[in-house]
Amino acid sequence: MARRRFRSNQRHEPTTERSFQEYILSTPAPQTSRTELLRLVRGGEDTYLELKVKLSNTEKIAQEIVALANTGGGVIVFGVNDQMRVEGVDDPERVQEDLVRICREEVQPALVPYIDRVALDNGRRIVALEIETKRRPYRTRDGRFYLRIGAEKREASREEISALLDEARPLRYEAVPALGATMADIDEAHLWSYLREFEGGAFEEATVVGYPTSEVLERDLLLATSDGHDVVPTVAGLLLFGRDERAGELLPRAAVTATRFSGDSPQSPVIERVKVTGSLLSIYETLMRFVSRYCDLRDQRPRTLAETVVDESPVPARANYHRGVVSEAIANLLAHRDLALRDLPSRLHVFDHSLEFVNARRSVGFSPVAQKAIRYGMPQRLNPQLHSALTSAAYGLKLPLRGLPALLRESKRFSNRKAEIVSFNDEFRLRIYGV
Questions:
Q1: What is the structure's pLDDT at 27?
Q2: 281-296 burial, b for 16+ CB within 10 Å, e for fewer?
Q3: Residue 254 DSSP code
Q4: Which CATH architecture has domain 6-168?
Q5: Which is more confident, 5 or 145?
Q6: Which of 29, 96, 228, 272 is the least crowded, having the fewest Cβ atoms under 10 Å away?
Q7: What is the pTM of this model?
Q8: DSSP element (H, E) containing 18
Q9: 170 pLDDT above the threshold of 70
Q10: Could you tell me what percent of the chain has a pLDDT over 70?
Q11: By the 8 A CB rule, do 305 and 320 touch?
Q12: Residues 355 and 328: beta-carbon distance below 8 Å
């Protein structure tokens, strides 16, 4: 076809994934010529070509599309029988509409089809559906996976489904090597104090000789990578156990800006604004101190609150917040931000009567369904390694609450006001109210 290379009557893909991607990205998508299509048909069915007389069974066509998409892409030609004889289709426009609907509704994730309608000299018309595989694995609407072996399709085995899912697993930003970082940037005291909390389980101090920091960080914690010569901490490794000055220097996008406003909106005058950098532990402790400077943190709602003094005083009373709610909100701010969005910094806003936590988070695919799901404890974690370490008691954060549902519940009990969660413009905002 027009977007794939083939020789004689046999189709093939480029020898490497890189060359295939370059070919796909650099090659335009013109209409397929009659000569090119007929030459393809004469080669007969194979792993990349399926011939159909007509479009009659939507379910089977969806299975054929899924099989081709999971195997490397290919073409389905309608109007040609198994003996490679062109019989044509009666209504190619209707066939095209049905194919678009099948690719959109019967295949998950939805496919963007390339469809060519070709008229032959004898007046017969055929339709060619070309399938590219960019987001595999694909499945039918009823959740079944298919592969194409030779000219036949079959349902994928558990092992094959596992391999497809493993191939599709994205490389998260937290697992990327931190550019410019070395093992000298790791705070070994913090790292080994973390490891000792697992003594008797994963960690055996008696077997440790010379405190091999790089080996433990790479092989045991998976927080470093090796280029064949040197071991380099990943983004997660540097944020969790890096020295404060180096973490702030090498990962400026991980900084959090804390601001105290004299009012209840970002348009209010600014009393104080600081930019907090360093490891996640240092950022957490600094943000807790910043909030404590302007608010009262309590473990329980006070039985009696001071009566509001009705006078002309320009200074409002200090708001009271549940200590566990604030600590959990700051931990969520640090663990669930999208570090790949470099131009959207994380922010903590302290208002007269509320606290707002603003994080970078892609809105597409997250709102509004996922906003409700996270209230039930079903998060979509961007940084599973960061989240696991931060919520572990071994790391050093004092988190009496666990998870957003507990945060929302305790915030409502403490202030009698429901916390607000919104996601728009690639930002996630959590606002809690004080008393």
A1: 42
A2: bbbbbbbbebbeebbe
A3: G
A4: 2-Layer Sandwich (3.30)
A5: 145
A6: 228
A7: 0.66
A8: helix 17-26
A9: no
A10: 86
A11: yes
A12: no
